[in-house]
Amino acid sequence: MSTSEINVIGIGNAIVDVLAHTDDEFLQHQELEKGGMMLIDASRADKLYELMGAGKEMSGGSAGNTMAGIASLGGSGGYIGKVANDKLGTVFGDDLRSAGIEFSTSALVGGAPTARCLILITPDAQRTMNTFLGACVELSPEDIDPEFIKRGKVTYLEGYLYDPPKAQEAFIKAATIAHEAGRKVSLSLSDAFCVDRHRADFLELIRKHVDILFANETEILSLFKTDNFNAAAENVRAICEVSALTLGDKGAVVVHAGDSLEIAAVAVESVVDTTGAGDLYAGGFLHGYSTGRELAECGRIGAIAAAEIISHTGARPETSLAERVRNSV
What is the pTM of this model? Predict the structure, then answer.
């Protein structure tokens, strides 16, 4: 195994995305909460897949998307996530490696199939996600290679993965190894659904183990059980070194020490699909952070990456993010 440094190592749910366009009536008929993320079982996944019609299949997962963004920016990335020893698992790994991302987590044999996320996109570009976790939940501390983690300047933890106890143990193990090696640890809250389920544990995780936090407005308000964004920003300032709080088309606020930086959103001609916007913002920000950029520049790169992803269907870049950053100067 190589001993070279890696900009960012992501740990998350290894998922294959299936994206299809639909309308509000379909969501209502299926009793789906628009814009949210719902965990579903295998039976529901099969039924919904049948009803949603033709879809576009591609490797996804929140942290996987973030790593794809870092690779598109020219950074080095690594990934830890559990797939099954099946066709979709092979596709997922091949996609990461073809982008230059190191991925060597052992595949699950004889258990649940590789996870998939059924993403329904309405005409207003909102995405409603229905996730069958499958093999993802089998990630364990044994999948955390200490020597691999030590190579990463930043270890990035995906909040979506926090449900299984073994995954929680894996997070703590990875964060502890990273900090003992003088590295940084980052966490994405992922979804208000996750925050509602794990609020107390997330707060403890942030206080003890997280240096860089990513959250959107809904997630950070939920974390501190408030409807006042400024109050939430002050609360997170007290427990985390750097927090990047995204506000959709209003941009983002980067909170650190005694300062708050307002980062403008990058305008796009047409918003097609918001799937992965937060993932790519995190990718752009962490690429900047891991290459020594100022926080304002990290936020700007994040905004550029998010703008690219919402201009087309799917949560992986379709054009070179590195080129977009160069052309924006």
Answer: 0.89
